[in-house]
């Protein structure tokens, strides 16, 4: 039977196509039982790679079945047919994803960003408390419900963290995610703490929320890594961000994994708290003072129409326009994809490729 017939027998009337890949697609459908529209992720085992079928799909199904949080997309049903197709029935993000929202409306005001970021951070705390890590946090994976509340989705790279005999979390060696949102330790191929990796991605997401642009230019991974490791973060002057907001972003985009904020510290940060506002300059200076640089390492890249960032497909072994002053946002330049045994990895642009223009900005360093 085709997908429509399979879904019809389960009580779903198939609707439009929401997305499609080489071995999976997402459709909308109306649930006759629930009386509202849902999203249906359909995975064809016959077309999927072995690594995905043996490792990532079982993890995703196990984790989806255990999660229950108001800011995480609900999973209503999972079933499989005899011809090897897996159907995952999920909550539908009726207002689209955060990336499209920012492309359409521009950077969020801090009050709106605070609300959405608090929802996202609450979802991540829920996951981390269960020793579940997402490992692919990005704006495309943050859906919006009818009231524009955040719904975290796509747990395809998620996993349950293991602990050693002393109770400490073990390091992860699977390098996955999107280069534009990936922490420097992941880009370098260093075994990493997966919860700490999620925090870096949260920092990138908050930056995009309030600036409407990417914090780093991922068209040159080597240069991007150097800037990240020097702990330099540029903020467009036109956005007039508060010191508390910049301080939180700066502490999440901390290259030293031992100093990067934990999720509880994020939720208790004065910018995230709805009432406890007002961070002294001394508190900011303790970590890093907001200052103007004589030379900006990079101007934040406007969000371009290219949907997906450079992907760091999972692999087990470590491996080696527009001014920011403008309010119009298009999605980020998320650049090179090079083959590595059929997998895509981050890369540098060809020699002589044009670099982003230097524009005035503020630098947190």
UniProtKB/TrEMBL annotation:
Signal peptide: none annotated. GO terms for cellular component: cytoplasm; motile cilium. ATP binds at residue 41. Keywords: ATP-binding, Cytoplasm, Developmental protein, Differentiation, Kinase, Magnesium, Metal-binding, Nucleotide-binding, Phosphoprotein, Serine/threonine-protein kinase, Spermatogenesis, Transferase, Ubl conjugation. Residues 12-272 form the Protein kinase domain. Transmembrane segments: none annotated. Residues 283-365 are annotated as: Disordered. Its EC number is 2.7.11.1. The keyword Kinase applies. One of its GO terms (molecular function) is ATP binding. It catalyses: L-threonyl-[protein] + ATP = O-phospho-L-threonyl-[protein] + ADP + H(+); L-seryl-[protein] + ATP = O-phospho-L-seryl-[protein] + ADP + H(+). One of its GO terms (biological process) is intracellular signal transduction. Its main location: cytoplasm. It is an enzyme of class 2 (transferase). It is found in: Cytoplasm. Residues 303-319 have a biased composition (Basic and acidic residues). The keyword Secreted does not apply. Its cofactor is Mg(2+). Belongs to the protein kinase superfamily. CAMK Ser/Thr protein kinase family. This is non-specific serine/threonine protein kinase. It comes from Loxodonta africana (African elephant).
